[in-house]
């Protein structure tokens, strides 16, 4: 979808999409950012691609909410980041991100 330097760095992880999980809050964050910065067309392209991950879309439920709250207190992550991190931890998944908020946390690959 993108073609910037971040897209190139994320490409190796996205190519093996069978192993990807997509927290619903990531859909919110990316869609909102694209709407604001790139316009409706690119945001809708992203959304159509996100629909392809419906079977791997992770909704925020009570268990994840409580885990995220605990992790936010422990790590000082903001709410959305804590939800993303808790989702990865709960599913024993590696979090691949370019967000430096996660830099020192276990189970994170910073690209």
Q: What layout of secondary structure does this protein have?
A:
Layout: H1 5-14, E1 22-23, H2 24-37, H3 40-51, E2 57-58, H4 62-75, H5 79-90, E3 95-97, E4 108-110
Parallel strand pairs: 1-2, 3-4
Helix pairs in contact: 2-3, 4-5
Task: Please describe what this structure looks like.
The chain is mostly helical and 111 residues long. It is built from 5 helices and 4 strands; from the N terminus they run H-E-H-H-E-H-H-E-E. It has a single domain, classed as 5'-nuclease (Rossmann fold, 3-Layer(aba) Sandwich), CATH 3.40.50. Strands 1-2 form a two-stranded parallel ribbon. Strands 3-4 form a two-stranded parallel ribbon. Helix 2 runs antiparallel to helix 3 and helix 4 crosses helix 5. The radius of gyration is 14 Å and the shape is globular. It starts with a helix and ends with a strand. The model has no long low-confidence stretch (mean pLDDT 89).
H/E topology pattern: HEHHEHHEE
Estimate the helix proportion, in percent. Answer: 55-70%
Lateral strand order in the biggest sheet = 1-2
Oligomer: single chain
Average pLDDT rating: 89
CATH superfamily, please?
5'-nuclease
What's the CATH architecture name?
A: 3-Layer(aba) Sandwich
Features:
mainly alpha; Rossmann fold; 5 helices
Quick rundown:
By secondary structure, the chain is mainly alpha-helical. 56% of the residues lie in helices and 9% in strands.
């Amino acid at each position: 979808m993108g073609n910037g330097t971040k897209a190139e760095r994320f490409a190796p992880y996205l190519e093996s999409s069978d192993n990807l999980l997509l927290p619903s809050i990531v859909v919110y964050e990316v869609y909102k950012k694209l709407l604001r910065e790139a316009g409706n067309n690119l945001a809708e392209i992203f959304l159509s691609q996100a629909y392809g991950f419906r079977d791997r879309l992770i909704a925020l439920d009570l268990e994840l909410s409580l885990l995220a709250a605990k992790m936010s207190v422990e790590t000082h992550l903001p709410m959305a980041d804590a939800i993303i991190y808790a989702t990865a931890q709960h599913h024993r998944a590696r979090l691949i991100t370019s967000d430096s908020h996660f830099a020192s946390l276990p189970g994170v690959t910073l690209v």
